[in-house]
Structure formats: C-alpha cells, structure tokens
Amino acid sequence: MAQLFNLSNKKIRKIKPGFSENYYKIVENLDNYFTTIVDRLNVEVVYAKRLAGETNINIYFETIPEEKLILRISPWRNELLTSSIFFDLLVENKIPSPEVIKYDTTLEIVPFEYQIITFIEHDQTYSDKDVERMGNVYGKVLRKIHLIKTRGFGQPKSKNAWINASWGEALQRAYLQSKFLEVKNSIYSKAKIAEIESFFTNNNLAISQPFLIHSDVGINNVLFRIGKSSIEVAAVIDSGSLISGDPLFDIAMLINDDDKFSNATIDSYGLSDLSQKKKFRLKILRLLCSYWTSCYLSTVKEDPKKYTELTRSLLINLNKY
To answer: Is this model's pTM higher than 0.90 or not?
Structure first.
C-alpha cells in the first residue's frame, strides 16, 4: 500500500469558497483516493505532492521503477476524456504534449474520473524578461494547433462522437448554463443580462469547420524550457472543457487577459488576416469570455470589477458595430 503524503485538506471549504461539492470531496479525501489509484499500478511511490490549480486536482509523484508522473482527478464528468483526446491529437500532430498513460471514467476505483500522464521536465521559474519571449514562442505553436481539423463541436462524449450539434450550442451549454452564472443577477441588471446574452446565438457564432483549440490559454498552461539564447515549448497542457470549435475563442481569451504573455502571444500569432465577419465574431467571443469571467470571480469571492467593466465596454462597442 502506498504511504500517506498529507495530500488531503479538510479546511478547503473555508479556504476556497464557491467551488463544487465534488471538488471539496476530492480534496478532503485526496490521500485515500491517491493510495487507492496508485496501489493498482504495482509501483512504489517515493514522493508525492499536490500541484497548484483551480478546478483540477493534480498530484505529481515519483515511483520505483523510476518514473515521474501526474495523477489528475476531476470533479467534472467527461473532462478527462476531453483532456486525453486533446493530448492525443497534439501528439499525433507533433505538438509537444504529455503522454496519457491511463484514464479511467468508470468511477469504479474511486468515485471520480482520473487520468495519469507523464511529467514533462520544464523550467518552473523565469524572469520578467523571459515572459515576452515565451509568448512569442507559444504564438507560433498556437497557430499550428489551430490548423488541426476536428470532427465535432465543443466537448467529446467518446473518441468518435461529440456532445454538441454546433459551436454556438457548445458555448451556450458550457458558459451560459455554467453554475458560475448563477450570480449574474447580483452583478448585472436583468435588462443588461438580456442584452449581453442576446449576442450568443448560433447565427452570430456559427462555423462550419471546427478546429482544435486550447480553450484555457495562459502562461500557466504551457510549459517551457528556457535557455540563455533560446526558449522552447516543452508541452501544452490543461485544455479547457471545449477543445473543438472556433480558434478565435482562444484569441478572445488572450486579448481579454491583456498581460505581457498574452499580448506577445497574439503578436506572434498574427491577426492581420481577419475578415470583417471574423472580427465581429471575435468581439462577441470576447464579450462571452468577459461576462463568464466576471461571474466566476464573483462566485469564488474575488473582485470581478476589471471584467464587469470590460463586459460593459465590449457591449457598448458591439452595439456600435
């Protein structure tokens, strides 16, 4: 039996309010779940620690025979199926990515889906000067990701089938029906909510050919190896729940983040080829991302002001378009 590594946190409900009951249950029982899972691997675990993260619960561990692995346990159904398909598509297209060792969606071993992937060696510290160079490198990789054609919209329900009939439906299900939007009436007036949500229609968001998207772009979801004269992407990790759709969704997130890494990524990616139709769609996707983010921050008791102001500004801009 694997030894205990003090992975559980019984105080998590007070530390992180606003998260799901499943999230709390996993964190409170993490030692037990970890032991149950790794005992089936027939390896000796010599080290384990929980990694920082918002919604996924990730544990780095080392084993004898010598391996470095990541165990991921998800509060959400189908999330690790999505992640596994995302990683597999990256590997198939020669994009740096972890290898999926195992994923289990049966809920028979522990009451949640889990996945085991290879740990990718990377630099965990970097200087402020490196950030812009990192974004420049990632922008080129993101372009390659956005060239990978997929066969459905949003989130897969199996290796060969997808949950949604259209991209607009995928966005509405994942974002407008999100539990984080339950607080929207405390942030926006009913009239403003109706005005914002009126833009998120199949007509406005329609695309015919979906492509692979990262869906959770940001400096924390890309691993880098940093040398004195060069920087390379070691791995693209942690996709969002929607991995197939409009590449402009990733761009909308980056523009809204408006930080050094995001801006450098966009500059390297290049947006000079956008048609007027795509520019309009990008504005709507920015509104959707900002609207959802403001509600998410409010739910987890963080200040949503930056994103409520951005949402209102984007709405005014769209109404003039």
So the answer is: no
